[in-house]
Design a protein that fits this description.
39% of the residues lie in helices and 22% in strands. It is α/β, with parallel strands linked by helices. The strands form 3 sheets. Strands 3, 4, 5, 6, 7, 8, 9, 10 and 11 form a 9-stranded mixed beta sheet that branches. Strands 16-15-12-13-14-17 form a 6-stranded mixed beta sheet, with helices on both faces. It binds adenosine-5'-triphosphate and magnesium ion.
Length: 410
């Protein structure tokens, strides 16, 4: 099958002016989305946000209109040469289940047959016709249209019908706006549109896990604000640089991001003076949660997010998660809690964050920390361990070091 992507390079000018039975056939990307069990009020929010996100993703491209209906979205292309880029950009929009570049023709059998020749100027070995009739005023059923159009294609091309493993599938959707004809479908990311799920603050370390955790929250419709802690200037700024690259990549999925960077080194030095070494990393974590919570409140976030996975390392035992989390009042969400490292790595590779995450860096959790960590802390033990510290003053001190960076895509 020759993808439209390949054809537009050679003949975009011609493809922009196709006619079916004397009438111009414009190109429209037909977008499908899931989550149809949504309630009425929620559906309106979902559609509004999805439309905004699709428009945002296609910024700067020759799109004349983006129409959204309860089950479909129509993106009207002014110039089919933009299709490869439209295809790439829509692949980052959550809430989309699939999309297809279609020729829009009048809702007649003859026009559907005519569009076939324009879309398939070669002879396929075998084919199937798949019709979906959303406009029930059209007199023939989906199966009837499939049979009639299928017989026509067979008669005119000699290709054989194969309903199980066809070399080519001709899709026709009958909508009130016309018949939308296509031969290729692209899978979308699924999930919910970013912006329908509220805002969360994600603790981003520069490692493998936390970018995946952030991605999964976006996939459920959350706008993610990133918070990174670094020991810079006591260490180098390598983890900060990595977080910048990670946020820049992840911004494709939510279009706008903020990265808060907190210089934690001085706080860590104070902790190191009075906290027993085996508890240090846990006290760092408690400080991180407190500071992240202050930032979350400033940003209107309703939860914190971490990349923790149960039992992955000594600091992530159930007892430690419990006693660290005690200091937070916002819920701490851990989308990776039940995942194996291998599953997380596979996701990181698919998203594209893996290669950035494995770059060496100076992680602030290794700063002034012994290799051995207490695996069975209690909130009481940790409270005692930090009793000599002026916690509110340290939180304030850290907040005074905050740098904010903003990212936009595309
Ligand atoms: P990751 O790959 O996300 O670094 P990890 O397996 O290395 O995870 P830890 O280093 O124990 O696990 O960190 C657990 C979680 O705590 C991280 O997923 C992240 O959410 C948060 N965290 C750890 N260090 C930092 C940091 N320097 N800045 C922000 N968040 C951090
Ligand atoms: Mg880490």
């Amino acid at each position: 099958m020759v993808l439209l992507e390949e054809r537009v390079q050679a003949e975009a000018a011609r493809l922009n002016h196709l006619e079916v039975r004397g009438e111009r056939a414009p190109w429209v990307v037909l977008v499908r989305f899931g989550e149809l069990s949504l309630k009425k009020g929620h559906l309106r929010l979902f559609l509004g946000v999805l439309r905004r996100n699709i428009r945002g993703a296609l910024r700067g491209l020759p799109i004349s209109r983006v129409d959204i209906r309860p089950h479909r979205c129509f993106v009207w292309l002014e110039d089919i040469a933009a299709w490869p880029e439209v295809k790439r950009r829509l692949s980052y929009v959550f809430g989309i289940v699939g999309y297809a570049p279609c020729l829009r023709v009048p809702t007649t059998i003859e026009a559907m047959e005519g569009a076939y020749h324009l879309l398939v100027p070669w002879a396929p070995e075998s084919f199937a016709v798949r019709v979906r009739r959303a406009d029930k005023t059209f007199p023939l059923t989906s199966q009837e249209v499939e049979r009639v159009v299928g017989a026509y294609i067979q008669g005119h091309t000699g290709a054989k019908v194969d309903l199980t493993t066809p070399k080519l599938t001709y899709y026709v959707e009958i909508q009130p706006e016309g018949a939308f004809c296509s031969i290729e479908r692209v899978s979308g990311l699924g999930g919910l549109p970013v912006g329908t799920g509220g805002k969360v603050a994600s603790l981003l370390s520069g490692g493998i896990d936390s970018p995946v955790a952030s991605y999964r929250m976006m996939k459920r419709g959350c706008q993610v604000v990133f918070v990174h802690f670094t020991s810079y200037p006591f260490t180098d700024a390598s983890s900060w640089d990595k977080c910048r690259s990670l946020v820049s990549l992840l911004t494709r999925f939510q279009q706008e991001s903020k990265l808060y960077v907190v210089l934690l080194g001085e706080v860590q030095r104070r902790i190191a003076v009075s906290v027993p070494s085996r508890f240090r990393i846990l006290i760092y974590r408690r400080m991180m949660l407190r500071i992240a919570e202050a930032i979350a409140q400033r940003e209107g976030c309703l939860a914190l997010v971490t990349g923790e996975s149960l039992g992955q390392v000594g600091s992530q035992t159930l007892a430690n998660l419990f006693s660290v989390q005690r200091v937070a009042t916002l819920p701490v969400l851990r989308p990776l809690i039940g995942m194996d490292k291998q599953e997380i790595i596979a996701q990181a590779r698919a998203i594209g964050t893996y290669d950035i995450s494995i770059e060496p860096d100076m992680d602030c959790c290794q700063y002034l920390v012994p290799p051995k960590v207490a695996t069975a802390s209690t909130p009481e033990l940790l409270a005692k361990a930090e009793a000599a510290l002026d916690v509110p003053a340290l939180v304030q001190m850290a907040l005074n070091t905050v740098h904010v960076e903003e990212f936009r895509w595309p």
